[in-house]
Amino acid sequence: MPIYVNDEKISAADVRDEVERLRPQFEAQFQTLEPGERNKQLTEWAQENLIERVLIVQAAKKREDLRLGAEELERAWTELREKRQIPDNPEFKEQFELGVRVEKMLAEIAAHCELPDNDESKEFFSAHPQHFVVPEQVRASHLLKEVRSASDDRSAFDAIKEIERDVRAGKSFEQAIAEHSDDSANGGDLGYFVRGQASKEFEDAVFAAAVGDVTPIVRTEFGYHLAKVHDRRPPTPVSFEEANDQIKQHLLEGRKETAIADFIEDLRKQAHIVEHASLEI
Which residue segment(s) compose the domain that 143 sits in? Predict the structure, then answer.
């Protein structure tokens, strides 16, 4: 059954298309839900998205003051077509102009939000100390034997195993990189990094090693690695002065999101919406 928003129809096909657009992100976040419950929740979200989208577009259509001038529209439309290889279709052009109006309307709402002051910023800083810490960092260099295909795997492993024996026997790690690594740029130096910037297997080995140690052989998507830890920096608190601008921007974005959500809620209260039972997808 379709949904009607101020007599504008949202079809079952529209909902199915929105469900499929949302599905990859939704299913990654809600893997614990039973398939039936997951589909039901996903369908409800898709319907809500479409209702809100129709309400916003309807509101923008009423705002003739947001319409682009003929020359401005032609210039912007031509630029978009050339950039994205879009055909010069009047229907596409109309949708583009309407999209610009929507963007201008929402930007207008957001522009009324004021930047938080220092007191608000300090309150947020004090309430969320866990957000203002630079995580532990290590500085490491690595030696890599690439595996470009399945047939390379054995030879790459044998090569790095022999290199590891030499390093454990006293050969300079830096010399081994220079002579044998498939990634010897900057002497294999990776600089400082925190968890989340490299593959998990590599990070687990590096963060477990002491300064001066060479890790065991690690297999990643790139091949086989040995890594040497050169320095370690413990977690470091960020001062309020360092974080203040970032906090204010974060709070401002929250205010903008709230203002737009309130605007959409007001549109919904004024609208005539006929919703039927959730569609089975």
Answer: 134-236
